[in-house]
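As a warm-up, study this chain.
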Amino acid sequence: MKSKNLLFLIGICFVVILPSCKKNILNCKLGKYYLSDGTSTPAPNVFSYYEDGRLKLIVHTDGAKDTLSYNADTLTILSYDNTGVPVENFTGLLNSSGSVVSVIRNTLDFSGNITATDYIVFEYNANGNLTKQTTNNTSGATILSLGYDGGNTATGSLYISGILNKRYVFYHNNALNKTGIADLSGEVTPYFGKSSANLLDSIRIIQPAISDTVRIQYAHTLDNNDYVSSTIQTWLTGGEQTKYHTYQYFDCE
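Now compare it with the structure written out below.
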């Protein structure tokens, strides 16, 4: 469902002081996001916001929509398909930092009946980074754990129904992750904790069950405000493919 993979950006102030000049402090909102395989140019995902800067609506490439509403310590996301039929609802409890600590996520049929429910719990370290995500449903438990080196992800593991499915090793470069892109999803979701401080250089994904290792490399281009304008994501092993991510911003101050 679309709300499982939401994109969202909160601009982070970043000042560079040079001997003869001072760079402007800019806060930008993500306006459009494109994802392409290089053979076509799909329609963008389009984002709109409340007056206080919080995300209000995402219109996805295929016309599906996610609407977000906030009430005290609760975030509610309602997802609709491209015909306007509700397909999912998401109710999350927020902590004092605005990160989700627990979620009930329901999948709906065309009559609005609940066909599946996920119960998700999130844990964070003292810096606000996500360290553990536990999802329970009728299929069992799925547990993602992440370890950090300073402000960046270093290692991770994914267990499904008690069986190790994947291990992750993360490598970062020196560029600041001002956009706030999440390492595993490539998305910008600050209500799931702080993203890594620096941009990804590559990820190694070890899959014990099939004795396979995947290596993914990233090449980022920054705009004049130090936000990521484009990312080329290339699979070096595990099946060659390349994805092109493009980000467009607005309302920069």
